[in-house]
Amino acid sequence: MTATHRAQQPVTPQPPKASRAGRNLPAAIGVGVGLGGIIVASLFLYRAGFVVVLAITVSLAVWELATSIRQSGAHPPVVPLIVGGLAIEAVAWFKGSEALAVTFLLTCLAVAVWRLADGPDGYLRDVSTGLFVALYVPFLAGFAVLLTVPDDGPRRVVAFIATVACSDVGGYATGVFLGKHPMAPRISPAKSWEGFAGSVVFCTGAGVAFFTLMLDHAAWQGAIFGAALAATATLGDLGESLLKRDLGVKDMGTLLPGHGGVMDRLDSMLPGAVVAYLLLTAFIPVH
Predict the structure, then answer these.
(1) Could you give phi then psi for residue 267, rounded to 5 degrees?
(2) CA dihedral (55, 136, 146, 171) positive or negative
(3) Apex CA 69: angle with CA 68 and CA 75, to 5°?
(4) How do strand 188-192 and strand 182-184 relate by DSSP bridges?
(5) Phi/psi at 183 (nearest 5 deg)?
(6) Rounded distance, CA 128 to CA 75, Å?
(7) Which of 50, 57, 218 is nearest to 149 (CA)?
(8) Which residue, among 133, 50, 155, has the nearest Cα to 92 in the 3D structure?
(9) CA–CA separation, 141 and 270 (whole Å)
């Protein structure tokens, strides 16, 4: 075959190479910026609007998690979980932490009673997974609502969410370029100790910046805040990875391009909300 003939052969297009990131990075950045804009706007324009946004997010996350859990054969009751989740966020805003705990218990009771209608087969399995969903999503998210209540609530929430975001960004960037030692290869092979170190550095720096520049408190408090959120965010991420492996799913959903589902964005935020609330309340008491 001549060179001319070879040149005329159709060229088979090559599939795009996967980035080292392992995700659609432009989409992930765009979605992240959009979500950040919605959060900031709702916090500073009308604080109750943030609670509404959070309640909707929690409902979507509950639905995603309950749907994924069905892969295991369990069927947690979705209706009482969503209704109870909305009630948990509402009472946290209007009545505080004690009402949050009571409403969570009432939600657990509602799950157990609702499931009675489907008979005894799989009752314990369905109720126990329902209680897990109620604890994991709406109850933990309720602490983000509690952060919003004080007069400086918007600044507290921004410090919390932005610091957790720094954990994701720092761990991701450091892990992609420097990661060599897997942190938990059987749970999340891509997560490395180098990435965790990056999370701690980024979070500590963010915590110091937020505490000194925005919250007007000591740098050492910000360092503790940032390091604690780096640890809880990483544990939250690993916990959801473990759950997904057990259920045999890659992502909890597909609603957020470049991220997966809503639960895939909340995994590091949910445990971090509790730690952020406890530390901010201890360091900056509400008068």
Answers:
(1) -55, -40
(2) negative
(3) 120
(4) antiparallel
(5) -85, -45
(6) 10
(7) 50
(8) 50
(9) 6
d(CA 201, CA 230): 9
Q: Alpha-carbon distance 140 to 155, whole Å?
A: 19
- What is the b/e burial string over 75-84, where b = at least 16 CB atoms within 10 angstroms of the residue's CB? bbbbebbbeb
pTM score, whole prediction: 0.85
Instruction: Convert the pLDDT of each residue in 203-255 to its tens digit.
Output: 999 999 999 999 999 999 999 999 999 999 999 999 988 888 888 888 776 66
Six-digit token pair at 172? 């991701």
E-assigned strand segments in the chain: 182-184, 188-192
Q: Is 201 exposed, middle or buried (0-12, 13-18, 19+ CB in 10 A)?
A: middle
Name the token pair of 170.
């720092």
Task: Give residues with Cβ within 8 angstroms of 196, minimum separation 6.
Answer: 171, 183, 230, 234
Cα–Cα–Cα angle for 158, 148, 234, nearest 5°? 50
Q: Which residues lie closer than 8 Å to 179 by C-beta, 6 or more apart?
A: 190, 191, 192, 193, 194, 195
Average pLDDT of the chain is: 86
| pLDDT attached to residue 44 | 86
Which of 117, 106, 102, 205 minimizes the C-alpha distance to 159? 205
Among 171, 165, 214, 183, CA closest to 21: 171
Taken in order 143, 145, 147, 149, the sign of the CA dihedral is: negative
